[in-house]
Every structure is written in structure tokens, then in C-alpha cells.
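Morning. Coffee machine broken again, so started the prediction first thing and wrote up yesterday's gels while waiting. Chain of 138 residues, entered below exactly as on the submission form.
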Amino acid sequence: MDAKVTWVNDMTFLGQSGSGHGVVMDTGQAFGGNNLGPSPMELLLLGAGGCTSVDVVSILKKARQDVSGVEVQLSAERAPEVPKVFTRIHMHFVVRGKGLKDSAVERAIKLSAETYCSASIMLGHTAEITHDFEVVED
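Came back before lunch.
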């Protein structure tokens, strides 16, 4: 996997993935930026949420669950001193579908957290990661 980050101006950077996708990163004005995009730490959190969401959808589909939507709401705390690593991350999953089994949703989240999601497993080396979920019937 390859990527490139290029400084644009002030504290704005353009990230480009090896697959050709781009993302603008910036900081708030308090840190010399213009708040034109998510900060690098926000992208890490989003990456973990995206990684686990892909897993949960895939696992539920393979389990033949009629899933129609997955949303994960993430909240994180960071260390007060540099490096300001994530120390706690909570993931709240809202899973929509028809006749979804709570046990299947719980299993999918657990498999992602413990086996498949490289991003959250990596972040778990510095942060305590917790999960909960709710199932919404379509």
C-alpha cells in the first residue's frame, strides 16, 4: 500500500492514496490552519470506523442477514500530553435491516474488533476500545 501527502499551504495538506483517491487534511485556525478538511487524527478515527463497518456489513451478509444499513458513531478521548494518542474509543453501531438477529450483529462486531479490522486492532494498542449496538427494524 502506498500513499502520498503534499503540503498545499498554511496547515492544509492533500493526501493521495495509491489507488488515486484524494483527501484534504487541515487543522483549525488555532493551529495555523483554515479548517478546510478533517485533521489527520480525525481521519484515523474515521478510518477505524470505516474499517469496522466494512467488516460488519460483510460478515452480516455472509451470515445471510437482511442488513440494509450500518452506521457507527465514534467518540474518542486523547492523552493530554504529546504524543496525544487516542486513549479511549467508543463505537456505537446502529444496524438496520429486516429480522436481524442480535446475536449475529454482536458476533459481526466482535469478529471485526478481535480478528479483522486492522485499523481498530492497531489503535487498540494505545486505546481502550469499547462497543455497543442497537438494531433498528426496517
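The domain at 1-37 is CATH 2.20.25 (N-terminal domain of TfIIb). Going to sketch it on the whiteboard this afternoon.
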